Amino acid sequence: MADDRQAVLDAARVRITSMEDEIREALKGRDLAADGDERSDGHHHPAEAASDSEYREKQLRDQLRMREQLEQLSRAREAIEAGTYGVCVDCGSPIPEGRLKAIPDAERCVPCQSRAPRRR
Ligand SMILES: [Zn+2]
Questions:
Q1: What is the CATH number of the domain that holds 6?
Q2: What's the structural domain count of the chain?
Q3: Which of 76, 89, 90, 108 is within CB 3.0–4.6 Å of 113 for a Cys-Cys bond?
Q4: 10 Å Cβ neighbour count for 113?
């Protein structure tokens, strides 16, 4: 079954790399947008200022979430290299292959994840 294990690791590496690329690309787009013209189209009544700050808050939340996801992906990558990939960080049980295929950076088995606060 070593071949299966290797196939799971290879697939996870590929998925993780492409997810990282996607997130980096998305972050890059956002950074450019932030540097660009800040919707300087002259309409500055209070209602619009409010929606602007809500918009910026949402952008910041999105960025934060993407950075967290990048960190989680890099932890998964380290786990692959360390040989600990696919093992639940809470209970040490193997995470089912199907779950790893769906969520390559899963750190917990399903029962532990459902007990863990927030996130997937
Ligand atoms: Zn577990």
A1: 1.20.120.910
A2: 1
A3: 108
A4: 17
